[in-house]
Design goal:
alpha+beta, Alpha-Beta Plaits, four-stranded antiparallel sheet, about 25% helix
């Protein structure tokens, strides 16, 4: 599941969220991030946040990229 792009008005930033709960999707998450970065070379990543959450049945990993035009 991919989140929406959000642009802030004060300092133009783009926030991109990648997340996955299924094991196969989690194993491909890095490739999805790399592909998105290649498709958006005009953006420079200024911060990366990696989060993990889980309960008895589900494990979720999320990667949040905070970017700005280069």
């Amino acid at each position: 599941m991919d989140g929406s792009l959000v642009e802030t008005s004060a300092r133009r930033q783009v926030i991109k969220v990648f997340s996955a709960t299924k094991a196969k999707d989690r194993s491909l998450l890095g490739e999805r991030v790399t592909e998105w970065m290649a498709e958006n070379p005009e953006l420079e990543i200024s911060r990366t946040i990696v989060m993990q959450s889980s309960d008895r049945l589900f494990h979720c990993i999320s990667i949040v990229l905070i970017c700005q035009p280069s």
